[in-house]
Amino acid sequence: MKVIIIGGGIGGLSASIAMQQDGHETVVYERVSELRAAGAAISVWSNGVKVLARYGLLERTKRVSGKMERMAYRQWDTAETWCDFDLNGLYDEVKMRAYPIARSELQSMLLDANKPAPVHLSKMAISYTTSDEGVTVNFQDGTSDTGDFVIISDGTHSKLRNQLTGKDIKRDYVGYVNFNGTIEKAHLPDLPADTWTQFVGQGKRVGIMPMSDTHFYFWLDVTTPLNTAPTSPSEWKAYLGEYFTGWAPAVQTLISKMDVGKIARVEIHDTAELPTLIDLASGRAVLIGDAAHATCPDIGQGGCQALEDGFVLQQLFRAHGLSKDAKPSIEQLRAVLANYEKQRKERTALLVKRARQRSDITHKLASEEVTNSWYEELKQEDGSGIMGGIIKTILGAPKE
Ligand code: FAD
């Protein structure tokens, strides 16, 4: 059985690892000529870590990630602590820690684990065709490849999503621009090195998360209409400095010390629930990751859901008797797809909605009143409310 995978991001690489674990032949095709992680870091929550652990990657993840023991919210200007709580209760409850990790580390870990399967670069997939015999993916350079099944993991701007769904899928702008990067912990001596600190107020947010022993990952959110934040890095310090006027010293330090050449600027988008994630008619194509359910990062679940998608496919391949030694039948493939849709569509759509609601509150995009009452809740928070929500998300993950 040969599985073609479109896109070498978190979704595509992890799905390839999952398929290879069971001896299936995989080949990854990636649009860019050089794989470089986009963005500074990512927090892999416990549900995502459990998937990495199943691929034998837990020890390496632990080694290269930040130790995140606590979470704190602080007032935007005075830095007064509104709440500050231990995350170990959450980790105990879900039986796995969360690991914030540099995207470059995660990518090289996945690439290493994916070997010896090939990752072909500079291959932009533009369409696929199916027959009783298999699926052929066509590339912009005029070449093609044929396999038994295609996993479409070409991200939020997916080229193949419209073909699979039969609809013109548009991304929706969520309402804010995220500037993210890394900073040495030594520059922020007043912030505890093991705490995910968030400064909030005025409908704005700055997050600072331990990403390794030596570095914090940080992000600054600017609520602004689409295409209004400057695109030139040389303008970012002044822009952010003005937007965050009067904010706490830690935020001023972030802005003054940031290396704009290494900052990612992302206009945050998501997609409404797709009509389908599967090509049931042919039985040979599935959408995973951001191509299937692009989300805003406000509950840190986009990458985790991409990881869950590949894991579910692996479980379903096993459950429906797909073997490395035999060609799959269309009936088997259709059964895999139908179950994938059942297990993934509702869960991922719900999390996209939940992230959007979270974003609306954080960025004062729903109403001033709602955001202000959230600030008051944070002042009363002992951690149980916030952790309860995260636990619910994590425990909703697919079981083996
Ligand atoms: P991508 O990572 O986008 O990979 C898609 C790949 O496909 C790319 O390499 C692309 O070049 C390639 N490609 C595209 N088109 C084609 C084509 N036609 N042919 C071949 N290749 C193609 N998630 C979390 O879990 N935790 C977090 O803390 C978190 N924080 C985030 C912070 C920010 C600011 C953002 C923007 C996202 C965050 N996410 C987080 C979400 C997470 O980054 C994504 O959900 C995840 O990267 C999706 O992986 P993917 O493989 O589906 O897509």
List the helices and strands and how they pair.
Blueprint: E1 2-6, H1 10-21, E2 25-29, E3 41-44, H2 46-54, H3 58-64, E4 70-75, E5 81-86, H4 88-94, E6 99-102, H5 103-114, E7 119-120, E8 125-130, E9 135-139, E10 144-147, E11 149-152, H6 161-165, E12 172-184, E13 195-201, E14 204-210, E15 215-223, H7 236-243, H8 249-257, E16 264-270, E17 278-279, E18 285-287, H9 290-293, H10 302-319, H11 330-362, H12 368-380, H13 384-395
Parallel strand pairs: 1-2, 1-11, 2-7, 4-13, 11-18
Antiparallel strand pairs: 3-6, 4-5, 8-9, 9-10, 12-15, 12-16, 13-14, 14-15, 17-18
Helix pairs in contact: 1-5, 1-10, 2-10, 4-13, 10-11
Flavin-adenine dinucleotide (FAD) binds at residues 6-12, 29-32, 39, 42-43, 48, 123-125, 153-156, 159, 178, 180, 266, 289-291, 297, 300-304, 306.
Compact description:
The chain is of the alpha/beta class and about 400 residues long. The protein has helices at about 10-20, 45-55, 60-65, 90-95, 105-115, 160-165, 235-245, 250-255, 290-295, 300-320, 330-360, 370-380, 385-395, and strands at about 1-5, 25-30, 40-45, 70-75, 80-85, 100, 120, 125-130, 135-140, 145, 150, 170-185, 195-200, 205-210, 215-225, 265-270, 280, 285. The chain binds flavin-adenine dinucleotide.
Largest sheet: 7 strands, mixed
Structure class: alpha/beta
Unreliable stretches (pLDDT < 50, length at least 5) are none
Oligomeric state of the chains present here: single chain
In which range does the helix fraction lie?
25-40%
Helix count equals 13
Beta-strand percentage range = 15-25%
Quick check: average pLDDT? Answer: 97
Widest sheet: strand ordering: 5-4-13-14-15-12-16
Bound molecules: flavin-adenine dinucleotide
Radius of gyration: 21 Å
Choose one word for the global shape: globular
Distance between the termini: 22 Å
Tell how many strands the DSSP assignment holds: 18
